[in-house]
Structure formats: structure tokens, C-alpha cells
Amino acid sequence: MDTLTGGILTTVAGGILNGTFILPMKAVKKWRWENMWLGFGLFGLLLLPLLTAAATVPHLLRVYSAVSGLTLLSAAGLGVCWGVGSLLFGLGISALGLSLGYAIIMGTTAIFGTLIPAIALDSYIFNTIRGWQLLASLALILAGLVFCALAGMKRDKLGSSHQMLTGTGFGKGLTISLLAGILSACFNIGFALTAEISRTAEQLGASKSMSAFAVWVLIMGAGFLPSLVYCLYLARRNRSFSLYRFAHRNWLIVFLMGLLWVLSVALYGIGATNIGPQGASIGWPILMSSTILTANGVGIWSGEWRGIGTAAVTRYLYVGLALLLAAVILAGLGGVH
Fold it and tell me: E strand or H helix at 76, and its extent?
């Protein structure tokens, strides 16, 4: 297997984990949303990324001292923006369910998180066959996003809801999810635009595949701040701190969520690196589409569309998934040329 093919397959594997890391949330009992999301953030955005970076990136502090302050500030700033998107992601998924929430959020993220790095890294990319294939894959993602949203709206009209730990209505949940998708794109934008950090990590002894964690730990650490502030605010308002005394197995659940998330990020970093110089722009739509397909498969399996009572609703969903699958294939082909 050549490096490019391995990179694409590794990115798809990252998408599979990214599409399932939120599934354990369905098993959380006796906690409110803020209890769950704060626990996940503690493990998935702070502790596990920091431990991974410390274990895989030698001389981590020297890496940061060797790069420009502007690069570090850019990573932190984009991390905070992504953190707001991550917070809205948690609210959006809770409101719309796994399948619909992922389709809307990741579809939006795929578009913004692909276009901006692609233009920043190579302003002439859309004058090439690869660039046109990339644009076509984004068009397929957008079309798939529309069909999945239509399926969700029709499901909502039939009175079928699959909310988790929240009582947010469909309209508000849709708005939250669209905003989450736009801001979550800052994750890949930060990865693409702060490559100086990962290059420096390589020069100081980190492997090429794991050097990206020098970037991830900054983005995710800064991204934890919005979740921390908002969850503490909700916990104080709802007096839900005391709920941590109950259902101690929930700690294992949020740890598992964090672990799956960090593994998905690691696989994406390895895959994007192996894809090549355009890994951030080619790999991102592959990751996002794989994530959406996986999340929808999990959502269907877990019964989010059970009892709808009409094939007309699920037909929209299946058409949307088919378009997303086509987007994965086309984006993958774009990496070959």
C-alpha cells in the first residue's frame, strides 16, 4: 500500500471514530448536559491531548519557544473560535440527534474547513483538475446536507424527536448546528495555517505523523475555555454541581468519549500528513464525509429514525448519505492527481 492510499484510509478511520465518539452520551444518566460536556472537555480537550503531546513530541516547550509569537497566538485564537463551535456542536447534537446533527454540522464544517485552507495553501488550486474535483466534492456535500436537513424537518413534523439531555426545539437546534459548523472549521484552518509548529516539532525529534499534536494541544486547550466557562455558568444557574455525586459510571462514559475523540484527531493528523502538502484541504472533506456517514449509520442503528412510519422521510436521508459517499470518493480521487 502506497503512502497516499494509506493516508486516505487512515483519514477515513479517523472519520469513523469522529462519527461515533458522541454515541456514549446516550448512556449518560442523572447528569445534566453541562455535567456531561464539562467531563468530556476535561478529558478530550485538555488532559488526553496534553498527555499525548507530552509523550509523542520531544521538547514540547522548546518547540513553542522556537516558533513566532504570532503563530502561537493564531493557534490559540483559532482554538477559541473552534471551542465555541465545539460547544455549539454539543448543544446541536443534543438537540437534533446524532444522524441529523452530524450531517448539518459536519457538512457545513467540511465546506468552510476545506475552502479556506485550500486557498491559503495554494491560491491556484482551483485552476487544476484536483481543485475542480475538490469543488465538486464540496457541492456533493452541500447537496447531501440539504437532503439530510429535509429529512430532519419532515421527521420533526411527524413528532419524532431524539434529543439527548436537552429540550431545544428543531428551529433553534438547526441554527445552533449551522453556527457550530462554521466555527468548527477553525480546527482545520488552525491546523493548516500553523504548520510552522509541526515542522519545528519534527526538527526537534518528533515523528512526522505525530508532530501535529504540538498544534492540536494548543487548539484544543484554547478550545476548552468556552466550554469551561459556559458549563460552569450552567452548573451554577441550574445548581447541577451536586449531580456529580451520582452515577459515577458517567465518568467512564465521558472518558471514553474523550479517548475516541483524541484517537480520531490523531488518525486525521497522520492521514493528512501522508496525503501530502495538500493534506489539510484534501483530507478534510474525506474526514467530514466519513464522519457524517458513520454518525448516520449509528443514528439509524440506535433507533433515531425508528417509528417514522413513512419511507418518504427516510428516502431523503438515504439520498443525502449517497451524495456524501460520492463526495468521499471524489475527494479521495482528488488526492491522486
Answer: helix 69-96
Q: What CA–CA distance (Å, rounded) separates 126 from 114?
A: 12
Decide if pLDDT at 337 tops 50.
no
CA distance 50 to 44: 10
The residue among 269, 213, 209, 227 whose CA lies nearest residue 75 is 213
Q: Are 190 and 75 in contact (CB under 8 A)?
A: yes
- What's the full length of the chain, in residues? 337
Global pTM reads 0.79
What one-character-per-residue DSSP string does 241-289 give?
GGGGGS-THHHHHHHHHHHHHHHHHHHHHHHHHHH-TTHHHHHHHHHHH
* Residue whose grid cell is 509569537: 69
Between CA 218 and CA 187 the distance in angstroms is 11
For 170, residues 6+ apart whose C-beta sits below 8 A from its C-beta are 95, 96, 152, 153, 156, 161
Q: Is 214 exposed, middle or buried (0-12, 13-18, 19+ CB in 10 A)?
A: buried
Residue 40, classed as helix, strand or coil, is helix
State the angle between helix axes of 69-96 and 186-193 in degrees (0 to 180), rounded to the nearest 10: 160
Mean pLDDT is highest, among 27-31, 164-168, 169-173, 227-231, for 227-231
Average pLDDT over residues 233-249: 91
